[in-house]
Specification:
5 helices; globular; single chain; alpha+beta; disordered N terminus; about 170 residues; about 30% strand; six-stranded antiparallel beta sheet
Length: about 170
């Protein structure tokens, strides 16, 4: 308990929420409504805002590239990463042009991308699995990425993934 109270001090909170005029330490921000971390926010010369959203489970990472143009939110791209033991590997990527960002669309696209990846790997290994079973597995993986940061097991998963995210 002594180390916990020692670690939580004024400088910790000042680095997360500094007083006006002080620089803020760049850390990803958790958005519970989207169930993802928001990072790499910036504004273009035209005044459009962009950010990357990251959500993950113990096997995959979903990275969303989001653009905010005037009063519309677009999805610019989705990338799926898998762990190969040491680092994250890009397994699927989709770019979009003028597609409105919608949570159901992101889920469906992510599930489809995981399904296609699993089907391709199994085909290369000459393994036959019913399409329904692959779809169920893909849906379970994507559902695992939509767990809340406040869930009890999230901290364990977070300590496993943070070093991998910093490498990306």
């Amino acid at each position: 308990m002594a180390t916990l109270t020692k670690a939580i001090n004024k400088s910790l909170f000042d680095s997360i929420l500094p007083t006006f005029g002080s620089p803020r330490v760049h850390i990803p921000t958790w958005d519970d409504s989207q169930k993802m971390f928001i990072c790499d926010e910036y504004e273009s010369g035209n005044g459009h805002r962009y950010y990357r959203g990251i959500r993950f489970c113990d096997r995959i990472v979903i990275l969303e590239k989001v653009g905010l143009y005037h009063s519309w939110t677009y999805i610019d791209g989705i990338e799926l990463y898998a762990f190969n033991g040491q680092k994250m590997e890009l397994i699927q990527k989709r770019d979009y042009d003028k597609v409105f960002r919608n949570e159901d669309f992101i889920r469906r696209e992510s599930e489809r991308m995981v399904r296609e990846y699993l089907t391709g790997v199994m085909k290369m290994q000459r393994i036959s699995v019913p399409a329904e079973q692959v779809a169920v597995q893909a849906q379970e993986l994507i559902n695992g990425c939509y767990k809340s940061f406040l869930d009890p097991d999230f901290n364990t998963r977070l300590t496993q993934i943070l070093p991998k995210l910093e490498q990306h």
